[in-house]
Structure formats: C-alpha cells, structure tokens
Design a protein that fits this description.
mainly alpha; 3 helices; about 75% helix
Length: about 90
C-alpha cells in the first residue's frame, strides 16, 4: 500500500473516532444537565432527546463513558499506527 493511501486512511479513521467521541460526550453532558447551553443540539432529533431523557441521568453517564472509550480507542489507534509506521521499511 502506498504511503499516501495509508495516511489518508489513518486521517479518515482518526476524524471519525474524534467526531464520535465529541458527539457522545456532548450528548452525555446535555443529558446530565438538561437546559444547558448545549441543549439546542437536540433540535436535530428532538424525539431522541426526549426518549433518552426519560431513561434518567444514568444514560448521560453512559454516554460520557462511551465518549471516553472512543477517545481511548483514538489514542491507541494513533499511537499504534505511528509506532508501526516507524518500524516499516520505506518502499
């Protein structure tokens, strides 16, 4: 695989994981603290926001945990991909 293709793939995966961690964390914050300045983000899907709020504060904690898990996955992915690249031969 050419280096540029691998770099593009790494970048795309990193952006995807970063976006997932950010959205999960923001959702967790809005579920733990309803009525905050982040609450308007539920305008995109108000039914989902209402249904998630009915599950209680525990779901907010779960979303924060999900955001943390995705952030750790991103960190591990980036560390492994950069370390692995250092030991490969340049073609």
């Amino acid at each position: 695989m050419k280096r540029s293709n691998r770099s593009l793939g790494l970048t795309a995966m990193a952006i995807f994981l970063f976006f997932g961690a950010t959205v999960a964390t923001l959702a967790g914050i809005t579920l733990l603290f309803p009525g905050s300045f982040l609450d308007p983000m539920w305008r995109f899907n108000p039914e989902a926001g209402e249904q998630l709020r009915q599950l209680g504060r525990g779901i907010g904690i779960a979303f924060l945990g999900l955001g943390a898990a995705i952030a750790v996955a991103l960190l591990v992915y980036l560390l492994r991909s950069t370390t692995r690249g250092a030991f490969e031969k340049n073609s």
